[in-house]
Amino acid sequence: MPGPSVLAIDAGNSKTDVALVGPDGTVLGTARGGGFRPPVVGTERAVGGLARLVEEAARQAGGSGPPRVGHVSACLANADLPSEEEELTEALTGHGWGDTVTVANDIFALLRAGVADDGEPTGVAVVCGAGINCAGLGHGGRTARFPAIGRLSGDWGGGGFLSEEALWWAARAEDGRGEPTELARALPAHFGLSTMYELIEAVHLGRLEPSHRYALTPVLFAVAAGGDEVARAIVDRQAEEVVTMATVALARLDLLAEETPVILGGGVLAARHPQLDDRVRALLAERAPKAAPRVVTAPPVLGAALLGLDRTGAPPAAYARLRAHYDGAEGAAAQAATQRARKGVTETDGDERGTGSPSRA
User: Fold this and answer.
1) What pLDDT sits at residue 350?
2) Which of 49, 82, 161, 183 could serve as a FRET partner for 57 with CA atoms 20 to 30 Å apart?
3) Phi, psi angle pair for 315, to nearest 5°
4) How far is CA 92 from the centre of its chain?
5) How confident is the model at residue 354 (pLDDT cuts 50, 70, 90)?
6) How far apart are CA 15 and CA 130, in angstroms?
């Protein structure tokens, strides 16, 4: 079996996946760990936390200690600005895991997983998990992306944002400031409470962990599916934001006039809630008729590994072997994650900085 040529890292805020890949596309070793949050713990500590996972993957590949590969392909949450990419690249290079290192935002892992392996890769990806983000690849290596820092950078949406929006409307419905909505009953009931006042108190006094509010996103979709006008309006607004980001990226890359994949991912979109999914596709058909929407549920580390194969000049068979590994071994896990999202066990995947901004993905 050939030795590893690519170290692929996909690091989000809730989980991190690492894979060592041989030059023929064979996955030699993998490891999974917790979230990657440089803004919270600092860059050096966050990158240092990857070392245990890298060494575990190396042990699976038959090595001992840290590996040495041709290229490190890292798709990382919080790598939103060029200065952040540079800082993270320097930190990863310092560990000596590869001859070369590239760092990109984790949205590019989703994008690469969803586009073809032959020819020039073009496409746009929108991830809607804990937050929302979008990026695109055009002809000649052109890129389109957004800062995705939250409301500060004009973002709206993602699981965290949707939960906050649902809570806002429910609170106002209960005290008479807003329109009546079933959310005022369903949201507290999800936690075994009777009123929004009790839920507000539990959150405010710390009896309910802030992260538990992510579980309210599936409740919002369930209430919307029941016909509640307020809930349906929130879901429609999310669809509007997804399509707006995708259409703007397509226009910036001059791709509106040609058939182009629009890759949809993240827990909110991967759950395929009918109202959201149907509305996204309908709006795309109106505004970008050539766009071909496609939900991708493959683990994003696949995209990071494909980017690594691109960099090392791997043969076509290597791409097929790599994709087959994740389509098979990880397919069931992806389906299970979708079912968990629909039932309310929503992972906070995506790029949420951890500073209170719910719009990052």
Assistant:
1) 39
2) 82
3) -75, 160
4) 21
5) very low
6) 12
Across 112-163, where does the E strand assignment appear? 123-128, 132-137, 143-145
Q: Sorting pLDDT into bands at 50, 70 and 90, what band is 78?
A: confident
Q: Is 178 helix (H, G, I), strand (E, B) or coil?
A: coil
Burial of residue 31 (CB within 10 Å: 0-12, 13-18, 19+) is buried
- Does residue 143 sit in helix, strand or coil? strand
User: Residues near 349 by Cβ (< 8 Å), separated by ≥ 6?
Assistant: 12, 13, 14, 15, 129, 130, 266, 267
Selection from 67, 78, 86 nearest residue 8 by Cα: 67
CA 77 to the chain's CA centroid: 9
Q: Where are the alpha helices (DSSP H) in the chain?
A: 38-41, 43-48, 50-60, 82-93, 107-114, 159-175, 183-190, 196-204, 216-225, 229-252, 267-270, 274-287, 301-312, 316-329, 331-343
Please state the pTM of the whole predicted model. Answer: 0.85
The number of CA neighbours under 13 Å toward the Cβ of 255 is 27
pLDDT for 2: 55
Starting at the earlier edge strand, list the strands of the sheet with 27-33.
27-33, 16-21, 6-11, 69-76, 98-105
Question: In which element (H, E) is residue 18 found?
Answer: strand 16-21
Q: How far apart are CA 48 and CA 228, in angstroms?
A: 47
**What is the residue whose two structure tokens read 């949809």?**
264
